[in-house]
Amino acid sequence: MGALTGLLLGAGLFCAWWACWVEDRDDDAAGARPGLRARAEDLLARAGLAGLPLAVLVAACAACALAVALASLLVAGAPLLSLVLGAGASWGPVALLRARARSRAAAVRELWPDAVDHLASGVRAGLSLPEALAALAVHGPEPLRPAFADFADDHRATGRFLPALDRLKDALADPVADRVVEALRLTREVGGSDLGRVLRSLSSFLRDDARTRGELLARQSWTVTTARLAVAAPWLVLLLLCTRPGTVSAFREPAGALVIGSGAACCVLAYAVMRRVGRLPEDERVLR
């Protein structure tokens, strides 16, 4: 009897520990951050290159790294410096994609309030949801019209609203589009008369957010540019110094390798801290 009591007590304590400290795998799978491949595909979509294979991006990174490493090796003759510069250049295509995605998001962010206003006007005028969305292919902002034209063709060909809505969301790849699409989906599935008010509130919020973000970015841009120049300048000076034979022989020694390695680590750390401290919060696609 005592053994059974102890066994039951131990099982109860184990269940309590399991409930408190072991997370549910389903919750982990639902709330886990996307993997590297998913993030790369999302970056390509936000940059407007959704059809580009990931192999092309990887090949571009490798080509940039190899070209810069070989060029610096021919100019300076320092293998470790060439390796560091090549590793930094491998991030070039990703940085270009991120810059393209940011500029595209900034441009689209200015257009979404007008698009939402057009959509709210169509709903208020009595148009059905597919008709209101298809009307944006004609009356909506110019950069957004192709996606809504594809939606209109898709819905006209299949007659299925929700699958066409999902494909529209994937084509736009934008947090605002996700919110609009999910509001339309909810209205379609459960009904309701608050869609017009929701869209008008969303339009007002988007205008305020775009205005505030524009002011902050205007003040922050010179600081970010200065930080990038501060990171790149020492390596350009070092590359020029390595054109002298004495400098090359010095950096081939263990002490020179330590200087290059510690300098690279400090530059990466300082730039990462600067980006983390000065980064504005970005809207994430939580409703993808």
What does this structure look like?
The protein is mainly alpha-helical. The chain has one domain. The protein contains 13 helices and no strands. α6 packs across α7. The longest helix is centred in the C-terminal third of the chain and has 47 residues, at 195-241. The protein is elongated.
Q: What would you say about this model in short?
A:
The protein is built from 13 helices and no strands. The chain has 288 residues and is mainly alpha-helical.
Topology of helices and strands:
Layout: H1 2-21, H2 25-31, H3 36-46, H4 54-76, H5 79-89, H6 92-124, H7 129-139, H8 145-158, H9 161-172, H10 175-190, H11 195-241, H12 245-251, H13 254-278
Global structural class: mainly alpha
Please give the radius of gyration in angstroms.
27 Å
Distance between the termini: 55 Å
Q: Please give the largest β-sheet.
A: none
Task: Please give the count of helices.
Answer: 13
| Average pLDDT, all residues | 77
Range of strand content: under 5%
Q: What is the total domain count? A: 1
**Fraction of residues in helices?**
over 70%
Q: What is the count of β-strands? A: 0
Reading the helices and strands in chain order gives HHHHHHHHHHHHH
* Poorly predicted ranges: 20-33
| 3D shape | elongated
Key traits:
288 residues, mainly alpha, elongated
